[in-house]
Recover the amino acids of this structure.
């Protein structure tokens, strides 16, 4: 069957590039609106960011160690949910460091294995990871609408620096 | 350098799965709001869908033939922009068929080449394609907010059937 290769370094950069952009979206919100504003009865952006953090922290740990845990401890940084922009950004940065720390321990072949993420979603590991990235892009796009509705210019989509 | 393989079939399915979901988002809009409704001064969803179609049609052609063309002809189906939901969906389906038609002609190694998409964005071909997919996810997420603001339940994000 026809196939192509991706370096694990490129995949890491793809994910962290998206995460850098999402971090800028968090930063762009005024603190009050980050935790309270939404459109159409949806969740505020902080809630969407918590979901991203939970998937990323539990996910990278599962990929690296084969232990899949999705808990309040992982999502909420010691059990207490961030209630300020500063603490949410700190949680974001902790997650970034965890991904960077685990990444070099993951052999290329691991990304081709079939696994059951969080005990319930079966798929090829790189596809499972792509799903978390896609989920982040999806919810971040919603954050762009919140920002526009607040009269705030969102960061450029193409800039992943 | 550490790397992993993706079958071209899996990458095709990834893209078309996202495009099936986006098609359902188009279908979920009432016709009038598809072309007129937005939040925060953003483009209506039909305009976002035109952009996706332009990237996808010009993109798959560029990947398959090395001729990069991004024109009103490609985006607007013979030069005239769709003005009904039916004609937009027909354009969407034409694009789907073009992707399916070109796909088997693209060798796996093509996805690993460096190219200059549309004469201006340089990158590894699979990464360029990922960018179009990410752009679609981003704008589709915005469509979810429009639907919620209209009181309409969007289709399930995880369902790519």
């Amino acid at each position: 069957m026809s196939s192509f290769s991706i370096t694990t370094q490129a995949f890491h950069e793809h994910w962290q590039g998206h995460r850098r952009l999402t971090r800028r979206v968090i930063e762009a919100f005024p603190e009050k609106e980050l935790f309270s504003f939404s459109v159409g009865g949806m969740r505020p952006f902080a809630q969407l960011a918590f979901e991203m953090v939970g998937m990323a922290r539990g996910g990278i740990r599962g990929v690296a160690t084969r232990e899949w845990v999705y808990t309040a401890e992982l999502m909420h940084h010691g059990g207490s949910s961030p209630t300020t922009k500063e603490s949410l950004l700190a949680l974001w940065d902790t997650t970034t460091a965890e991904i960077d720390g685990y990444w070099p321990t993951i052999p290329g072949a691991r990304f081709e294995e079939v696994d059951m993420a969080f005990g319930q979603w079966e798929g090829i590991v790189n596809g499972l990871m792509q799903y978390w990235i896609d989920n982040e892009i999806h919810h971040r796009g919603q954050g762009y609408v919140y920002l526009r509705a607040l009269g705030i210019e969102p960061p450029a989509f193409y800039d992943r620096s």
The beta strands of chain B are 3-7, 114-117, 121-124.
